[in-house]
Amino acid sequence: MQAVGMVVEYNPFHNGHRYFLNQARQITGADVTVAVMSGNFTQRGEPTIVDKWARAKAALESGVDLVVELPVFYTVQPAHRFAAGALAILDALQVHRVAFGAEHPAWDFPALVAAEQRFNQAGFDQYNATYATQFNQQLWAQTGLELRDPNDILAFAYTKAVLANHYPIQLTPVQRQGSDYHDRTIHGRIASASAVRRAVAAGTEFFATVPPAMRTALAQVDQVPDWASLYPLLRNQLIQAPLGYLAATYQMAEGLEHRMKEVAQRSLTFDDFIHGVKTKRYTYAHLLRMCLYTTLQLSEEEVAARVDHPYIHILGFNKRGQEYLHQVKKMVPVPLFTKVSQGMRDGFYNLDYRAGKLYQHFTPVEQDLKHPPLMIR
Amino acid sequence: MQAVGMVVEYNPFHNGHRYFLNQARQITGADVTVAVMSGNFTQRGEPTIVDKWARAKAALESGVDLVVELPVFYTVQPAHRFAAGALAILDALQVHRVAFGAEHPAWDFPALVAAEQRFNQAGFDQYNATYATQFNQQLWAQTGLELRDPNDILAFAYTKAVLANHYPIQLTPVQRQGSDYHDRTIHGRIASASAVRRAVAAGTEFFATVPPAMRTALAQVDQVPDWASLYPLLRNQLIQAPLGYLAATYQMAEGLEHRMKEVAQRSLTFDDFIHGVKTKRYTYAHLLRMCLYTTLQLSEEEVAARVDHPYIHILGFNKRGQEYLHQVKKMVPVPLFTKVSQGMRDGFYNLDYRAGKLYQHFTPVEQDLKHPPLMIR
C-alpha cells in the first residue's frame, strides 16, 4: 500500500478539505491517506473550534484513512519548525508522498531554499521589523520572489525539511481551488475555515460547507474557544510568576517578559493586552504563540528535551488505515501508540497532556488519558 | 490621644462589629480606634465578599477612626502567625491597648502560653491528625483546657505574641455577645458575618444587619467571590507548573504538591478538588491557604524575605484618625504610606499587589497602584 500524507489543522474540517483529499488521492494514485493533524491548538497558538477528537472523526468519516496528532512542540511554531515536525512524523510513518495546497505550484522551491543559504545575517538586524519581513527582503534581492501567501511559506518549509533531512518524500503541490483563505463570508458549499468559524461564532448558516459529522460537533459549540476566555489564566501567570521564571519561557527574548507582565497588570481584557504588547518587531501569530507557551509554562529546557524525539499518537483510523498501520508499524522508528498511559502522561507526552487540560477550559471531555482511538468502519 | 486597636476582617462589616467597636472604646476609654484589617483575602485564604476599600469605607462610616491593611503574608496564616503579624502592625502604630472578642475572657491565657513551652515535640508525630488536634491533646493533658473556639485560639495567639515580643500592649478581651459565629441564619439586627454572606449569596434579606455603606456595596454583589470561581487559575497552575516549582511553594510539605497536582488533573470543579485533596492530616482552612499560596506562586523564599519587615498601608481615616497619624508618624519604625507607588508595587508591596490583581477576577477596580486613601469627615 502506498500512502499520501497531508499536514492539516481541520479547524474545522470542511468541504474544501474533502475536495483536496480526493485530489491528493487521484494525483498521487495512493491507496491510503494519512493526515497529521494539529491537536487542540493551532499553529498560531489559538484553541481550535472543536477538540481534536471531533475534528479527527469528521476527517475519518469523510474518507481520511488514518489521523495522527502533531505534538504541540511541533504545531505551535513558525512555519519552518511546524513543517519540519510534521514531515518527521510522516517520514516515521513511512509516507513517501506528501500533498499540500499551493498558490504557486510551478515555483522552483529548491532554488529558493538554496537562495536562503546565501542570506546575510546582517540582514536580520532590524528591531522594528518582523523576521518574515526581513526574510522576504533578502529573498527578493536574491530571486525576485517573495513568500507572502501562507501556502507558499509552507511549500518552502516542506522543501527545506525534505532537503535538510534527505527524506525519501516526494512533495506534491496541488493548485488551490475555491474559496480564498482570507474570504470572510460563505457563498456556496466551499468556504474557508475562518469563514466557517466566523459563521459559527455569529450564529449564521454554515451547514452547507461542512460534512455531517462536523455539523453535529459545530452545532454544539456554545461559545467559540478563544484567547479572550483563556486570558484570566495567562494574566494570572504573567502577574504571579517571577520575571526570572517568565524569562525561561520558550522563545522569550529581548525582554519581552517585562513588557508582557507590565501590560497584563493593567489590562483587564485580552484585546487590551494583545494590542498593548504588539510592536512592529513581532507578528500577532508570534505573540499568540508566546501567550500559549506562557500559559503552558513551556520552558526552553522542556522543548530542547523533546523536540528531537517525535512520537506518534494515533487519533483514529478506518479499515484501510488499520491495514496500513499493520504494514508499517515494525518500521516506525519512534513510539507509536493509541492510548496515553499514566506513564506517558507524566513522561514524554506531558506537554500534549497539559495542552489538553488547558483545552478542558472549553469542554469537560478528558482529551488524552486512556482515551481510546476512533475506529470507523 | 490614646488608641485602642482591633484586628478585623469585616467580611462584611455588620452591626455586631459596630457594637463591638463601641464596647472597645467604652471599656478602654480610648480616644481613637484603629483597625488592622485583612485585605482582599481572609485568614482562611478565601476572597472577601467585597473588596478592602468597600469594607474600610463601611468601617470608617460606622465610627472606626483609622483602617490599615494587614499584609497578605500575615493575614493568610494560622492563628499564631496572623495574631503576631497584626500585633506587630499595631505596636508599630504605637497602639497600647488591643481589644478582641473572647469566649472565655476569664481564662488565664498567660498560663496556657506557659504550658505550651512544656509541650513534647513527640506529641506532634501523628500524620493522620491535624496540628490543632495534637496541640489540644497536649494542652488538655497539661491544663484541663482546650482551645476550640476561634476566639479562644486568637486570644491565646495574641497573648503569646505580646509575651514573646515584650510589646507594651494591654490585651482587653471583651465578652462576645449576640449571634454565634456558626449561626447560619439571620434573626434580628445582629447576625454573624457568615450568615450575612450566606444571605447575600442566596439573595435573601440582610439589610437590617449591616450599616448603610455596606448595604450599598453588598447590593452590588452579583456573585459572591469564592474559590469555585478562582479554581481555573489554581487548576492551571497545578497542572502546568513542574512539581519542583510547586514544591517550593510556601508551606508545601510532605509531598502535598503531588497530591494537589494529581487531584487537579482529574477534577473539573473546586468542590471535587478540595474533597479529593482533604485528608485527616490537614484542615480545610490549611488547604484553602495552600490553594491561595499556590495561585499567588508564593514561595518560602519570598515569605522569608518579607515576614520580618512589616509595613503599614493606610486604607482610610477620619479627622480623628488623621490627627492620631500626625501624633505618631514620627515614632512609627516601619514604612507607613497611603499610596502604592510603582516602586512599592515591584518591591516590598508586590505580594499584596498580586493578591489585589487576583481579586480583580471579581472587580474591575484597581486595588492598589496609586489608589488614594479613603478620607471621611
UniProtKB/TrEMBL annotation, chains A, B:
Belongs to the TmcAL family. This is tRNA(Met) cytidine acetate ligase. NCBIfam families: PRK13670.1. Catalyzes the formation of N(4)-acetylcytidine (ac(4)C) at the wobble position of elongator tRNA(Met), using acetate and ATP as substrates. First activates an acetate ion to form acetyladenylate (Ac-AMP) and then transfers the acetyl group to tRNA to form ac(4)C34. Gene3D superfamilies: HUPs (3.40.50.620). SUPFAM superfamilies: Nucleotidylyl transferase. The gene is tmcAL. Signal peptide: none annotated. Keywords: ATP-binding, Cytoplasm, Ligase, Nucleotide-binding, RNA-binding, tRNA processing, tRNA-binding. It is found in: Cytoplasm. The lineage of its organism: Bacteria, Bacillati, Bacillota, Bacilli, Lactobacillales. The keyword Signal does not apply. It comes from the Bacteria.
